[in-house]
Amino acid sequence: MLFHILTGNLSHQIEHHIFPDMPASHYARIAPQLQAICRKYNLPYNTGRFGTQFRQMLGRIRHLASQC
Questions:
Q1: Per residue in 8-21, pLDDT tens?
Q2: Which residues contact 11 (CB under 8 A, 6 or more apart)?
Q3: Alpha-carbon distance 28 to 26, whole Å?
Q4: Which residue, of 9, 28, 31, 32, has the fewest CB within 10 Å?
Q5: Is the pTM above the cut of 0.70?
Protein backbone atom coordinates (compact mmCIF):
# COMPACT_ATOMS: atom_id res chain seq x y z
CA MET A 1 0.00 0.00 0.00
CA LEU A 2 2.75 2.46 0.94
CA PHE A 3 4.60 1.69 -2.31
CA HIS A 4 1.48 2.59 -4.32
CA ILE A 5 1.13 5.89 -2.49
CA LEU A 6 4.82 6.79 -2.80
CA THR A 7 4.89 6.06 -6.54
CA GLY A 8 1.62 7.83 -7.30
CA ASN A 9 -0.09 4.51 -8.09
CA LEU A 10 2.21 3.82 -11.04
CA SER A 11 1.66 0.14 -10.33
CA HIS A 12 -1.92 0.66 -11.54
CA GLN A 13 -1.21 2.71 -14.63
CA ILE A 14 -3.45 0.62 -16.90
CA GLU A 15 -6.37 1.08 -14.53
CA HIS A 16 -5.72 4.81 -14.43
CA HIS A 17 -5.70 5.15 -18.22
CA ILE A 18 -8.88 3.12 -18.67
CA PHE A 19 -10.71 4.85 -15.81
CA PRO A 20 -9.03 8.27 -15.36
CA ASP A 21 -11.84 9.68 -13.20
CA MET A 22 -11.90 6.75 -10.77
CA PRO A 23 -10.33 7.42 -7.36
CA ALA A 24 -6.92 5.73 -7.10
CA SER A 25 -8.02 3.88 -3.98
CA HIS A 26 -10.22 1.64 -6.19
CA TYR A 27 -7.51 0.56 -8.67
CA ALA A 28 -6.34 -2.48 -6.70
CA ARG A 29 -9.91 -3.74 -6.47
CA ILE A 30 -10.54 -3.65 -10.24
CA ALA A 31 -7.06 -4.89 -11.24
CA PRO A 32 -7.98 -8.63 -11.17
CA GLN A 33 -10.91 -7.99 -13.52
CA LEU A 34 -8.70 -6.08 -15.96
CA GLN A 35 -6.08 -8.84 -15.79
CA ALA A 36 -8.76 -11.38 -16.74
CA ILE A 37 -9.86 -9.25 -19.69
CA CYS A 38 -6.26 -8.91 -20.87
CA ARG A 39 -5.77 -12.69 -20.63
CA LYS A 40 -8.99 -13.30 -22.57
CA TYR A 41 -7.85 -11.10 -25.46
CA ASN A 42 -4.16 -12.06 -25.21
CA LEU A 43 -3.08 -8.53 -24.24
CA PRO A 44 -0.05 -7.82 -22.06
CA TYR A 45 -0.68 -6.92 -18.41
CA ASN A 46 2.61 -6.65 -16.58
CA THR A 47 2.83 -7.59 -12.94
CA GLY A 48 5.68 -8.42 -10.65
CA ARG A 49 8.20 -7.00 -8.27
CA PHE A 50 9.54 -3.49 -8.82
CA GLY A 51 13.04 -4.72 -9.71
CA THR A 52 11.67 -7.13 -12.32
CA GLN A 53 9.47 -4.45 -13.86
CA PHE A 54 12.37 -1.99 -13.92
CA ARG A 55 14.67 -4.47 -15.69
CA GLN A 56 11.96 -5.27 -18.25
CA MET A 57 11.47 -1.57 -18.93
CA LEU A 58 15.21 -1.05 -19.44
CA GLY A 59 15.29 -4.03 -21.78
CA ARG A 60 12.43 -2.59 -23.86
CA ILE A 61 14.14 0.79 -24.08
CA ARG A 62 17.42 -0.86 -25.12
CA HIS A 63 15.61 -2.96 -27.74
CA LEU A 64 13.68 0.00 -29.17
CA ALA A 65 16.77 2.23 -29.17
CA SER A 66 18.72 -0.37 -31.16
CA GLN A 67 16.07 -0.22 -33.90
CA CYS A 68 16.61 3.49 -34.54
A1: 666 788 898 899 99
A2: 3, 4
A3: 6
A4: 32
A5: no
Give the C-alpha separation, 10 to 16, whole Å: 9
Which of 64, 60, 21 has its CA nearest to residue 44?
Answer: 60
3-state secondary structure of 7: coil
**Residue 53 CB partners (closer than 8 Å, separation 6+):** 46
- Do the Cβ atoms of 50 and 3 come closer than 8 Å? yes
Over range 40-68, report the average pLDDT.
87
Residue 14 CB neighbour total at 10 angstroms: 18
Q: Are 46 and 56 in contact (CB under 8 A)?
A: yes
